[in-house]
Write a structure and sequence with these properties.
Blueprint (H helix, E strand, L loop, with lengths): L1 H14 L6 E4 L1 E4 L4 E12 L3 E7 L5 E8 L1 H5 L2 E8 L4 E8 L9 E11 L6 E7 L3 E4 L7 E6 L1 E5 L17 E6 L4 E2 L6 E7 L7 E9 L5 E4 L5 E2 L6 E5 L3 E6 L10 E10 L16 E7 L9
Parallel strand pairs: 1-11, 2-12, 14-22
Antiparallel strand pairs: 1-3, 3-8, 4-7, 4-9, 4-10, 5-8, 6-7, 9-12, 10-11, 13-15, 15-20, 16-17, 16-19, 16-21, 17-18, 21-22
Length: 302
């Protein structure tokens, strides 16, 4: 009798296999020369604390512009997303997390991907496809689950790019930036800033958001959307829609090669594609925060 029951259970499991979680790329549509964004998502919801996947796209039609963590991913302790595109058109993205959050939530959207459509592109639908499986972690344990994947696509329409709205004449947006981490740091610690945007009468208008840091030797570096620093004028968020927003942004652990002294972090919203150092292109106020890098034994993180 027991053997019969056992066989019955095995047959039932075979008839109704466990459903694997699905990591999917979204779909989007826009015109040549425009930007288009969609989500990298997991379904059903999972308490994701890190993820890793690789995808490819047609570089004749698209250029990857931005990869942003979702709010839910950041709330679960994921503080950085790395993006390695080599060769062009093959993109590996993976994350780093603090690993010490006492509570994590189920999330659906993992990240937001933004592409620029080639200005010479014709009407077509081009796929954005996974290469291999996707992986995710749910509890900082170092054990990764494998998800099945679902490809995405971008439809390019032949109409011209959407015109940029005329800048409003009302009250411009206000930006505040302050240190979220301590103002005195040692090597290995992570400078964190807290930002807040108040849209005022410019809600819905588009702008480039910049975060830059001046080193003690006077060198100015810009934080890009992938967590790195570059001397090239690069927005931390390009062509963003202005709205009320707030959050934390990190600059990565301070390397031993960083010069000790006073660091100043600047933030500003600027006209899309224009020089943020010129006052005529600055949409918001220029805000700054400072921290001091001192030599000594770094404070260990848990």
């Amino acid at each position: 009798m027991k053997g019969i029951i056992f066989c019955f259970v095995i047959l039932m499991l075979a008839a109704f296999p466990c459903r694997a979680d699905i990591v999917s790329l979204g779909i989007g549509s826009s015109a040549p020369g425009d930007k288009v964004s969609f989500s990298l998502s997991i379904d059903p919801d999972e308490p994701v604390t890190d993820f890793d996947c690789t995808f490819e796209y047609d570089t004749n039609l698209l250029t990857l512009d931005d990869v942003d963590l979702s709010d839910g991913a950041e709330d679960n302790g994921i503080y950085r997303i790395w993006c390695n595109e080599s060769p062009a058109g093959k993109v590996h993205i993976y994350t780093e997390s603090w690993g010490d959050e006492w509570w994590v939530d189920d999330i659906s959207r993992l990240a937001i991907l933004t592409f620029i459509i080639s200005s010479s592109a014709r009407s077509t639908t081009t796929p954005v496809k996974f290469i291999g499986p996707a992986y995710y972690e749910t509890d900082y344990s170092g054990y990764w689950d494998t998800a099945t994947t679902q490809n995405g696509a971008i439809t390019i329409v032949s109409s011209g790019p959407t015109p940029t709205p005329t800048p409003p004449s009302g009250k411009p947006p206000e930006l505040s930036v302050r240190m979220e981490s301590t103002m005195v740091l040692t090597y290995g610690e992570v400078p964190m800033v807290r930002y807040r945007v108040k849209a005022n009468d410019w809600k819905g208008y588009h702008a480039d958001a910049y975060l830059a840091v001046t080193l003690p030797n006077g060198k100015l570096l810009y934080r890009n959307n992938r967590g790195g620093l570059t001397s090239k004028q690069t927005p931390v968020r390009g062509n963003m829609t202005i709205g009320d927003a707030s959050g934390d942004i990190g600059f990565g652990p301070l390397p031993n090669s960083a010069p000790p002294g006073l660091y100043t972090i600047y933030g500003v919203l600027a006209t899309v594609g224009k020089n943020p150092l010129k006052a005529k292109y600055q949409i918001s106020n220029v805000e700054d925060a400072q921290f001091q890098l001192v030599t000594g034994t770094p404070t260990p993180h848990p």
